[in-house]
Specification:
Layout (H helix, E strand, L loop, with lengths): L2 H17 L5 E5 L14 E5 L8 E6 L1 H5 L4 E9 L4 H18 L6 E3 L10 E7 L6 H4 E4 L2 E12 H10 L1 H11 L13
Parallel strand pairs: 4-8
Antiparallel strand pairs: 1-2, 2-3, 3-4, 5-6, 6-8, 7-8
Length: 192
């Protein structure tokens, strides 16, 4: 991995550690395998344990920015879950690969997972949204030569994605607010 990529991933890690001060942060080097390794080489997933900022687990990519930045700006992703599980590390690697493979995810995009978020969950898509659980303090991350924006990968249902297609992203977010969803609950009822 080049020096610029290492510096960017280290800047993301430093930003996440500072934001989640008082939480354990484990760095998981994730190898996408021989056929995909070059796509997001050196991908790290930062696994943040429960602490002062919340009782959930956060999984943050470090390496997407370096693989896809344009004019110094790029994205990283965060997922918040109810437990520590290898499944969520793998989903973050999937998002990183999907983003890098030319699909270029952005705010209000969605990705089908192809199966439930966890076994038995009605959530089978990930919606790219603002990191409401963590706020702009996590979202805006300076990196050498630019800025990474950390967006939330929120597990949602097929019905919620269909509702969003018909009524728009803001209408779906209003439904989430009205229902008071717990975004880390894999078994929450669909709001649509």
């Amino acid at each position: 991995m080049s020096g610029a990529k290492v510096s960017a991933a280290e800047a993301v890690e430093s930003h996440v550690r500072a934001f989640f001060e008082g939480h354990s942060v484990e760095v998981v080097e994730y190898d996408l395998g021989p056929e995909r390794r070059a796509v997001v080489s050196g991908l790290r997933v930062l696994v943040v344990g429960p602490g002062p900022r919340g009782d959930g687990w956060a999984y943050v990519t470090a390496g997407c920015w370096a693989a896809t930045e344009k004019d110094g700006h790029g994205l990283e992703f965060v997922m918040t879950a109810h437990v520590r599980d290898q499944r969520f590390i793998e989903l973050m690697a999937m998002i990183a690969h999907y983003h890098r493979e030319g699909r270029r995810l952005g705010l209000e995009h969605s990705v089908p997972i192809g199966e439930p978020w966890v076994p038995g969950s009605p959530c089978d898509h990930l919606l790219i949204s603002l990191p409401y659980l963590h706020g702009p303090g996590l979202e805006h991350c300076p990196v050498p030569g630019g800025h990474a924006r950390i967006l939330w990968t929120l597990p949602v249902t097929t019905a919620e994605i269909e509702f969003r297609r018909r009524h728009g992203h803001e209408a779906l977010e209003r439904l989430f607010d009205e229902a008071g969803i717990i975004p880390t609950d894999p078994f929450r009822a669909s709001v649509a």
